[in-house]
Every structure is written in C-alpha cells, then in structure tokens.
Design a protein that fits this description.
By secondary structure, the protein is an alpha+beta fold. Strands 5-6-4-7-8 form a 5-stranded antiparallel sheet. A 3-stranded mixed sheet has the order 1-2-3, with no helix packed on it. A hairpin with a 4-residue loop joins strand 5 and strand 6. The longest helix has 23 residues.
C-alpha cells in the first residue's frame, strides 16, 4: 500500500492498519493520530515529523525507521522493535514501550517523560540530553548506552542494567536505582541526590565529582569505584562495600556507614565531620589526612600515620550511661522527654536524645557522643532530671579538679593540653546550665515510687571502650517490703547504703589517656 492510500483512508475515517507490510513507506509529517498499526511492518519507513500521538504500534516492526521529530505521545509501542531507529527529538511522553527493542536507537534530545519502558532493551542507544523525567525503566537494559546529560529526575530504574553506560552530567535526583546493575558505568558529575541505590552494583563505576547527597547506598557494591571529590554528605552507606574504592577528598559529612567495608580504600582528604568511626572494616586503607571541619572548609585538618589511621577508623562511640533503679512508666517517659526537650532547645548542649532500654526492674538511658571531649559535659547535663543530679554533678566537678591538680604536677605537655580542653568544655557547660531557664515540669509519682527520685548509676565509656563510674547511689538495687507486702525502692528509707568512692587519680588518668583526640 502506498503512502497516499494510507493518508486517504485515514482522512476518510479509517484507523485500522494493523498487520500491514509498510516497509520503506514515506509518511513524513502525516497526521495519523490514534491510528492502529499493531504488528505492522514499518521498517526503514520515513515517519519524520509525523503525528502518531495515541497511535497503537504494539508489536510493530520499526527497524531503522526515521522518526525524528515525530509525535508519539501516549502511543502504545509495547513489544515494538525499533532497533537503530532514528527518534531524535521525538516526543514519546507518556508512551508505552514495555519490552520494546530499541537497540542502538537514536533518541538524542527525545522527550520520554512519564513513558513506560519497563524491561525494554535500549542497549547501545543514544539518549544524550533526552528528557526521561518520572519514566519507568525498571528491569530495562541500558548497557553501553550514551546517556550523557539526560534528565532522569524521579525515574524508576529498579533492577535496570546500565553496565558501561555513560551517564556523565546527567540528572538523576530522586531516582530509584534499587539493585540496578551499574558496573563500569560513567557517573561522573551526575546528580543523584536523594536517589535510592540500595543493593546496586557500582563496581568500578566512575562517580568522581558526583552529587550523592542523602543518597541511599545501603548494601551497595562500590568495590574499585572512583568517588574522587564526590559529595556523599548525609548518605546512607550502611553495610556497603568500598573495597579498594577511591574516596579521595570526597564529602562524607554526617554519613551513616556502620558495617561498611573500606578495606584497601583511599580516604585521603575526605571530609568526615559528624561521622561515626566504629564498626567499619578498614584493613589496608590509605589515608594521609582528613578534614574534620563542620563545613568541609579545611579549617580543621588532621594528619596521621598508617597506624594512626587504623586507630582513627576503629573507635567505639563514647557514651554516657544512666541506670535508674526502676522501670520507666508512661508518665515518667513523658516528663523525661519534656525536660530533655527544654534543655536541647536552649543550645547545642544535648545534640542527641538517648536510647532507652526498659527492664522489669531498671531503666537504662544511653547517650551516644560524637567526641570524647563531650563525655563529662554530657553527663553533667543528662543527669539533670534526677534527684541525684546535684551529687553526680559534684562528683564530675571533683574529678575535673583532680585532673587539674594532676596537670599542674605533670610534665606531659600533651596531657596538660587535653586536660585544659576538658576543663574548658565542662566550665562552659556549667555556665550554660546555670543560665538555663527551665519551665516547671510536673513529676508524676505513682503509689510505689517517683521515677526521678530512685537511685541511679552514671557510667562513662570512652572511645577506647574503657569505663569510668562517676556516681553510684548506695541504695541502688535495694528494696523494702511494706506492711501490705508492697515492694519499694530504698529511696527515702533508713536502710544502710553503701558509700560510693570516687575513682583513683590513676584510674581517672588511664581513662583520659584512652580518649582519642584530633589535633588541628
């Protein structure tokens, strides 16, 4: 059938051209909107500039067809074969191309936003500067495709294959690449901020200069990947693999990477402010210096040897542990939250709320701390809601005075410097606490006890996993039985209490020696 016949039939209202052999037909600029070309053969056809919007091309053969500038918006091309087709600047927005074949197709600057290309084969396709916003490419094959400068904002690439694909300078913010295959892919200077790459395979991929802020790379494989200068701030890297990866001068500020494998990786010049350094595999890492400044501006550089680097990346988190000799009630929990919220709202004295472990007889509050320097100030603040606060704070001040006396007689300049820093931090905290304006909070007792008046223990753990007890209520663990058989904590009773003795100066100094300091 000739092109003129198709155009005439369409003008007369005919829409069904399914199954026809229209090889090499010239329908350039023809208006065929809504036409039915199911299973038709249109290989080597000229459809440049044609209007095929909402047309049905399901299963059609369009190999080497010329479709540049064609309007295929909302067209159905499921299972269609468009290998080596020319779709430069074509409009395929909202089109259905499920399981379509577009091997080595030309889609330069094509509009494919909101199209469905799930399980489509686009291997070797040219998609430079194409628009694929909110497109569905789940399970698709894009291996070796040229996708430089494409816009894939909020697209679905779950389980897609992009091995060796060039995505440099592309826009992939908010995209879903869960379990995607990206081995040897070029992702240099790509924007993947907020994207989901959990479980993705990025072995030997080039991510140099990439924007990976807030990205989810949990369980991802990045062995041998190039992340030179990449921005991974606030990223989720839990249990990800960076074996022999290059993270030189990358931004890792506030990443979460517990369980990550950094064996053999290069981290020289990485920005690591607010990053936990425990539960990491770091055997054989290369790291000559890191940037610990809050804004990554190199105002706090820390240099170390290979042995110091190994220690730096294997610190346990310093903690303040308050053990209360009573289970936490709902009322007490509400009061505790109110008090800590008031404290936190008046500055940065309490950056993290505690984790709470409630047992049948006791409650444990655990405050994780970013630095050993903050152990004593955090303990001084964390105990505030409890009756034993005054006694605990007095002990902390006494321990600091012991250290200051030790420093006066010490010839160890490093120890003197560290003690001075600790003393300054605690003095600033005491001043801030004295200046705090706390609104009255009702402490709700029940029939058996007031949670905030029960005995407490306060235990500190430094980054070397050494412990120091700074307070222990002698009534802790003791119980009295009332006339009715009710069991009460020993608070307020005449029961003889064990007196708590402060740690010796030797134990205290040993604890301080276990602190991990970062000299600027």
């Amino acid at each position: 059938m000739q092109a003129e016949d198709i155009i005439k039939k369409y003008a007369a209202g005919e829409r069904d051209f399914s199954g026809m052999d229209l090889t090499e037909i010239n329908l350039s600029r023809a208006n065929l909107s809504g036409a039915n070309f199911r299973n038709a053969t249109l290989s080597i056809a000229n459809l440049s500039g044609a209007n095929l919007s909402e047309a049905d091309l399901t299963g059609a053969k369009l190999n080497v067809a010329r479709m540049s500038g064609a309007n295929l918006s909302k067209a159905k091309l499921n299972g269609a074969i468009l290998n080596v087709a020319n779709l430069v600047r074509a409009n395929l927005s909202g089109a259905e191309l499920m399981q379509a074949a577009l091997i080595r197709a030309e889609l330069v600057r094509a509009e494919l936003s909101r199209a469905n290309l799930s399980e489509a084969n686009l291997s070797g396709a040219d998609l430079r500067e194409a628009k694929l916003r909110q497109v569905n490419l789940s399970g698709s094959n894009l291996s070796e495709a040229d996708m430089r400068g494409t816009n894939l904002t909020s697209s679905n690439l779950e389980r897609a294959t992009l091995s060796g694909t060039d995505l440099s300078r592309s826009e992939l913010s908010g995209a879903d690449l869960t379990e995607a295959e990206l081995r040897h892919a070029n992702l240099s200077r790509v924007n993947l901020s907020g994207a989901n790459l959990s479980g993705a395979n990025l072995r030997w991929a080039d991510l140099s200069g990439a924007n990976l802020r807030w990205v989810d790379l949990s369980e991802a494989k990045l062995s041998g990947a190039n992340l030179l200068g990449g921005d991974l701030s606030n990223a989720n890297l839990i249990n990800s693999s960076f074996v022999h990866a290059d993270l030189t001068q990358s931004n890792l500020i506030r990443v979460e990477w517990v369980g990550a494998d950094l064996s053999g990786a290069t981290l020289t010049g990485a920005k690591l402010y607010g990053v936990s350094r425990y539960n990491l595999k770091t055997e054989g890492i290369t790291c000559e210096w890191v940037d610990l400044s809050p804004h990554g501006d190199r105002t706090q550089i820390y240099r170390f040897s290979a042995e110091e680097a190994k220690k730096f990346f294997n610190q346990t988190p310093p903690t303040v542990r308050i053990i209360i000799d009573a289970p936490l009630t709902h009322d007490a929990n509400q009061t505790l939250a109110q008090v800590y919220h008031q404290i936190a709202s008046q500055g940065e004295m309490m950056p993290h709320p505690p984790s709470i472990n409630v047992g049948y007889r006791r409650t444990e509050l655990v405050f994780k701390i970013d630095s050993d320097r903050d152990i004593f100030p955090t303990a001084y603040i964390a105990i505030i809601p409890f009756k034993n606060a005054v006694a605990t704070q007095k002990n902390i001040i006494t321990l600091m005075k012991m250290l200051q006396a030790y420093a006066i007689n010490s010839h160890n300049m490093e120890a003197i410097k560290q003690i001075k820093q600790l003393s300054t931090a605690l003095s600033q905290t005491i001043h801030a606490v004295n200046e705090m304006q706390m609104s009255p909070v009702t402490l709700t007792p029940n029939d058996n006890y007031n949670f905030f008046e029960t005995p407490t223990q306060v235990l500190l753990t430094n980054s070397s996993d050494q412990s120091l007890q700074v307070y222990y209520d002698g009534s802790f663990g003791k119980r009295t039985i009332g006339p009715s058989g009710s069991v009460k904590t020993a608070t307020g009773t005449t029961m003889k209490a064990t007196k708590f003795s402060l740690p010796s100066i030797n134990n205290l100094v040993e604890f301080i020696d276990g602190f991990y300091y970062l000299d600027n």
